[in-house]
Amino acid sequence: MAGHRLAGHRLADHRLADHGLAGHGAVIWAFSMSWLTSPLAIVIILSLVIGLLMVVLFGYTSDQKAIGIAKDQLKAHLLAVRLYRDQIPVVMGSYGKILRGTGRYLKLAFKPLLYVIVPITLLMVQIDRYLGQTPIPVNAPFLLTVHVGGQMTGNDTLNNVALELPPEIAMTAPAVHVPSENQIVWRLAGSKDGKYEVKITGAGKSVEKAVCLGSGLPRISTVRLRGQFWERMFSSAEPALPENSPIESISVNYPDRDIDVAGYGMNWIWLFFILSMVAGFIFKEVLGIQI
Q1: Exposed site from 32, 40, 119, 132, fewest CB < 10 Å?
Q2: Contact 150, 202 (CB under 8 A)
Q3: Which of 14-23, 52-61, 67-76 comes out lowest in average pLDDT?
Q4: pTM, whole model, 2 decimals?
């Protein structure tokens, strides 16, 4: 009888241990997933991937043999300057060859660099929609600024511009009119996480602007613009305002996102630039690609 009881206790202990290990594993898995979806992890992974793609793309679009010869010639001329520094004519001739060699190298590298820089610049613009700013914290005040143009100018016409808010967003102060800038500024605050649309009406025409509240990594657009194609491409993630609308722009002052690196807050672009350059130099050595 005692033996059965002892066996039962051991079985119960094993089951508790299994549950403990399962719970510990679940905690580790949850922590890993939360870290992998953090801004820091995303920037590190993107930097490694893009660093590799930059090197591979440069290697495929460049004349590797010609670049190697140009670099070897530059090294030889630099060595000549060091070896014959007491012979002025030789040094001056080497400097001239260094300048010509540098121009030849830049000519060989210019076109491949365009193939690399243009798509990466466009990609960074899109990534900045997610990592450049944070959503507005719940109950934190923020400013909504409307710039009026076209035929609507002056304080009287600004008075005719109306703001319509969803139930989750409230006005915390009266609107401030700035006639000299044709602007109206509202101070608002949200009470619940989510993405909402605020409606602005002027001259009988209504337009909307998205507002993101809470946390996480939503796609954020700080401004919505009328026309201004190139500025919209780099600064706005929303469709253009209608051309017949009197409103030229609607902006929200989202907080900038800082990524914590060893206790120091850093903009994601600087971190991405540093890490992708380091990754690129490592991959170029591993793959034997001349840059």
Answers
A1: 32
A2: no
A3: 14-23
A4: 0.78
The alpha carbon of residue 179 and the mean position of all alpha carbons in its chain are separated, in whole angstroms, by 34
Question: Helix/strand/coil (H, E, C) string of 36-96?
Answer: HCCHHHHHHHHHHHHHHHHHHHHHHHCCHHHHHHHHHHHHHHHHHHHHCCCCHHHHHHHHH
Q: What is the DSSP string of 260-279?
A: EETTEEE-HHHHHHHHHHHH
* Residue 192 Cα distances to 24, 220, 230, 249, 283, angstroms: 33, 17, 34, 25, 45
CATH class of 141-252: mainly beta
Token duo for residue 153: 């100018």
pLDDT of residue 29: 46
In a 3-state reduction of DSSP, which class is residue 7?
A: helix
- As given in the structure block, the two tokens for residue 48 are 């490694």
- Name the residue ranges covered by the structural domains of the chain: 40-131, 141-252
C-alpha span between 191 and 269 (Å, rounded): 31
Residue 256, SS3 per DSSP: strand
